[in-house]
Structure formats: C-alpha cells, structure tokens
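Sequence in, structure out.
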Amino acid sequence: MKKVKFKSDTNEFYGDYGDGEMREITEKECYRFVNRCNVKCVGSDENGYTIYILI
C-alpha cells in the first residue's frame, strides 16, 4: 500500500495499492500500515479523513 485514509470514529478505512484507487480495507490493515517506520501523516482532507503516505 502507498497511502491510507481513515475516520476511526466512523470505522471507515481505505487504502491505495498504487493504482490511485482507494479501496476499503480493514482497521487492522490500516493500523499495520500507519505503524510502519517509513510512513508520514500528511494531515486530513476536506471530508475529515486522516491521511498517511509511504515515504
């Protein structure tokens, strides 16, 4: 995965596997990505999703 976005309060988790399309993923997949050491939080989007990217 290259990017995730999520809203934990509504249990919505999405991941981009490199093709630019955000697909629904599990909470476990999302937090596994976020806890990697080469990931950076870039803030949130206009819909309130927190966004992390692979650096």
